[in-house]
Amino acid sequence: MHIVGTAGHVDHGKSTLIQALTGTDPDRLKEEIEREMTIELGFASMQLPGGESIGIVDVPGHIDFISNMLSGVGSIDAVLLVIAADEGVSAQTREHLAILDLLGIEKGLAVMTKIDLVDDAEWLDLVEMEIHEVLQGTSLQKAPLVRVSSVLGTGLDELKKSLAELLDSTPPKKNLGKPRLPVDRVFTLQGFGTVVTGTLLDGSFAIGEEVIVLPQGIPARIRGIQNHSHKLQKIEPGFRAALNLSGINKELIHRGDIIVHAGDYETTRMIDLRLRALANLPAPLRHNQPCNLYIGASEVQGQIRLLGTEALKAGQEAYLQIRLKEPIVAARADRVILRQASPSLTLGGGEVLDAHPSRRYKRFDEGTLEHLANLAENSSSRAVLDLLNNSLPLKAQKIASQLHLSEEELKQILPSLNQAGEALLLKETSWEEQVWQGTSAFIRTREEMLGALQAFHQANPMKAGLPREELRGALQQSKEVFELLLQKLREEGLVRDSGRLVAAQTHQVCLSEAQKSKAMPFMERFERSPYGPPDQKELEESLGAEIIEGLLGSGQLVRVSAEILFSPQAYEAMKNWVQTKIQAQGSLALSEFRDQFSTSRKFAAAFLEHLDTIGLTMRKGDVRVLRIVK
Q: Taking the complete model, does pTM exceed 0.90, yes or no?
């Protein structure tokens, strides 16, 4: 189903034309009927020659209701730009046309109405010439023109035929599997409760599904679905939809809210845009200038952050970052309009490049401008690669959500990038949980990790490695990301990972000959009395901290507590015995361990507590049992 919107100056016959085409008067409010002027959005439907049913959104033409107009044209497929024959192109004709141009709406018809009020054929030709002139240089410059009289019915069949031909070449809305309904109307019906309407985008809804109202995050359930009074079990993207929601009051939903499935979308207070300033903008846009952002059916106040330029003159394009006062839902490629509140003025329009920028950018950073330029390209593959090279590793589901891509499209892009050596699959699991990173980003992170290790080894040559959590903290990475990257470096043979310590593969702890000679008597004591060795204090007094670190780092000693060290041979013998003993009898008492190795309670307790710490055993009352059988 396609959605067609109207546009044009007040009292140029938009609503009358819709009524003549559909039999439905889109003006439903008492005030609209009394004033004979459209104030709110109106809705109708009709069947075109060829059988297609379309929805129609009628918008107000008065300047005082421009915000209502903007909430109606955000998701239309084509437009009927209405110009009255007796008045010609007027002020709101031009502003509505400028808005359509900024939104990139290329499908449309110019409709000259009220031809029955003009007897002079030459005058009609002059008005038609004026319309063609004003369309030049806009997205609708190729729009066919149809002359009609809504009162007499003249030209209506031609209009329907032209509209059918236009929409026949207009692709339907994409189904990305992530439905969202921007709410343009909310009301209650007796016996039904809360009803919201809007044009469904990016996916389908079905009766019985649980949904979320964003940005508030309020849960609800779809109780019923209608499309222009036709009851449906399921509704597809591109259709006008009326959803009957249960579990939520009308007062909690407002125009501009978004109905979604939980987890499909996140709210944002900052977005990146590519924006084109209005062609006849009276003064350049300035950095930090306040604005009103119109996206979907919502309007929110924001502040313009110009990137790469000090000012944006009429007709020029630039990248912007908009900081918003209230959260919104946005997606890549969504079209937006920026307006000035007072005096009322359209500033410009463009498209969302990134709905969830990772940071507040430096305004003239070349890397940022290159990143936005890559996003601005219409290549989904390029956008995916740019995202993966300018972020931490991301799950496939997050990539699809952030770039607003379908699962099918992303399943083609990611393997292709991987085959070309441009992206790495860091975690191979179910589709949604796969974790990917750009090769360039991985190389940067790898160098950062190896650099941190080399710096540590240089400062601490006698230590075996850097504690894992200390390395993760230095890199400021989440635990999941850190483990994935570390695993990749292990696979590449670049690091050693003991579980507690991480070291560069090339790092070796080497004691000097003098240090080895000084340590030899004590190492002999570890051999003579493996289960009753010298304690830390005695070693420090005789050898010093550096030699002890060297013995630990080179694997000649193993630490089990702050005060107690063992030789690796003794350590393995005790550990293997404990594991075998518990496997045989189910548990182990401290006294059994002490008697087996003829050691003191101090050494026995320290060693068993160490096994608890590394996860081999766990204490259960007065005995130990195995936690994990290795």
A: no
